[in-house]
Amino acid sequence: QVQLVESGGGLVQPGGSLRLSCKTSGITFASYYMYWFRQAPGTERELVAQITPAGDAYYSTSVKGRFTISRDNARNTLYLQINDVKPEDTAVYYCNDRRFADYWGQGTQVTVSS
User: Fold this and answer.
1) pLDDT tens-place string over residues 51-90
2) Closest CA to 37 of 27, 22, 50, 48
3) Which residue in 44, 56, 63, 105 is deepest, having the highest Cβ count within 10 Å?
4) d(Cα 108, Cα 80) in Å, to the nearest integer?
5) Are 22 and 95 in contact (CB under 8 A)?
C-alpha cells in the first residue's frame, strides 16, 4: 500500500522558483533511496535527481546547479527545490522509492511560461 503524493507544481515564469513535495506512506522512508523523475510532452520519463538514505544527492546534467533534492524523514516527505526555471523544465514531476518502478503517483505539473 505504497502511496506517493506529489504537490507544489504550478505556473512559473522563466527564472522563477518552485518547491515540489512528495508525501510518502507505506514505506520505511528513512531507509530508502528516493528519486525525482519528470516527463515532458513528447519525451520519455527521465530521472532528474536522487538522494540516499544518508542525504547524499545526485543530479542529471540538465538540472545540476539549479535543482536541490532533500528529505525530511520526520515527515516522510521528499522535496525538490527548483531554481532558475527554464521552459525545458516544463513537465509532470514524479517521485518514487524505486529507480525502475512499476507504480507511480499522479505527479505534479510544472509549467514554465512567460
Assistant:
1) 999 999 999 999 999 999 999 999 999 999 999 999 999 9
2) 48
3) 63
4) 12
5) yes
Q: Do residues 92 and 26 lie in contact, with contact meaning Cβ atoms separated by under 8 Å?
A: no
pLDDT above 70 covers what percent of the chain?
Answer: 100
- Largest interatomic CA distance in the chain: 40
* Residue carrying C-alpha cell 506529489: 6
Residue 20 in grid coordinates: 515540489
Q: Which of 54, 56, 76 is nearest to 4 (CA)?
A: 76
Residues linked to residue 18 through DSSP beta bridges, in sequence order = 82
> Of 28, 23, 30, 44, which is closest to residue 106 (Cα–Cα)?
23
Interatomic CA distance for residues 101 and 78, integer angstroms: 17
Give the number of other CB atoms < 10 A from CB of residue 22.
27
CA 76 to chain centre: 14
